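Sequence in, structure out. Go.
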Amino acid sequence: MSADDCHSNPHIISASRGRNWLDGFAVCASATCLVHCLVLPLLLAVLPALASRIDPGESFHVIILALAVPTSAIALIGGWRRHRAIAPMIVGATGLLFMATGVAFAGNETLETVITVPGSLLLASAHIANWRHRHRIRV
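Output:
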C-alpha cells in the first residue's frame, strides 16, 4: 500500500487520527502521573494542614496504571503497525513495567516515587517517539 493510498482512504485516515488521539491522551496521562508524583508531595510538605484532605489514596496509582496499560498498548502497537519502529514499544513497555513496580512498592513512598517517575517519563517519551514516527512516514 502506498502513502497516497493511505491519504485517500478515509478508513486509514480515521484510524490514524484515533491512534494519534490515543498517543496524546497517553502523554497527558503520563504528565498527570508525573505531576502527581512530584508536585503533590511538595504541596503536601508545604501545606501540612491540607495533607489529610488532598490525599487521593493508593488507589490513584492503580487507576492510572489501569488506564495507562490499555491506552499505551493500543497506541504503541498501532504505531508500530504503521511505522515498524520497535523502540517506542520497548521504551513504553519498560515505562509501564517501572510504573507497575512502583505500585508494588506503595508502602514505601520514597521508593515508589523513585521508580514511578522514571517510568512515567519513559512512557511519555515512548508516546512522543511513536507520534513522531507516525508523522515522519506521511508524504
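Check: Residues 3-136 form one domain. Residues 1-7 have pLDDT under 50 and may be disordered.
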